[in-house]
What we know:
This protein is mainly alpha-helical. It contains eleven helices and five strands; from the N terminus they run H-H-H-H-H-E-E-H-H-H-H-H-E-H-E-E. Helix 6 (173-187) crosses helix 7 and helix 6 crosses helix 10.
Amino acid sequence: MKGISSKSKFLLWLLCLSVSISLTSETTVHAFSGQVIQRGAVGDDVIELQARLQNIGFFNGKIDGVYGWGTYWALRNFQKDFGLPVDGLAGLKTRTKLVNASNFNGKFVHEQIAKGNDFTYYGNVPIEKQVKPKKKTNAGGAAKAPAKQAAKGGGAKTTPTATAANVPGGYSQNDIQLMANAVYGEARGEPYIGQVAVAAVILNRIESPSFPNTISGVIFEPRAFTAVADGQIWLTPNEGAKEAVIDAINGWDPTGEAQYYFNPDTATSGWIWGRPQIKKIGKHIFCK
Length: 288
């Protein structure tokens, strides 16, 4: 039996190479298009960007395909943590790093958006547990907001629900939920006023030019909150944490406009001790 000629070997090598390239292209074509994704962009690339960032805990907003400030700060925090240039632009290097670090079930995400469902896409949580069917609306087209008890001791108590319909200032349901997660993770052992105080600090930072101007931007700013660093922000908050957030949004600031706080029993940073102190609430000292 004659051996394979050099020409045949070369042709066989070319065939294998072309198949390899074809398979590689097929596995990567579904991860973003070739465009640089930046603030103001809309569409499928932004949906994938938001979903992947949420999958690994950087984005807590609504996956809606609109690149706003929440997506911008989430991407910057991702870039910083993964050693990339921090510019809020999802170029090739950033997209490649994100694809390697996250999971994206495009069919699930696009299906939920098409159905109008309220959903999330966090990692390590079964996706079937992250979907809430679209809320029914009344005749006027707006979701019915539950009544809140007007005064303590008057009539049967109804549990207030944090919704965009009954909170001022245009805060979204995602904003309320994220703040409740932060309050619960940071201060669930504190008295109620101490939980309101933590929520107030978050809001005070949004109003300051020294901090990001969104809820997610403030909470996920690197090294800003212990609960983010140790993962306790993903604990399920109780109703008390949600009520504390609503009270803070409605104007209750027991801290005296503090932008920082710390536990003197556990603080290791000398810097925080140098901040002008306002008052102590529970175990936390609140500072300017």
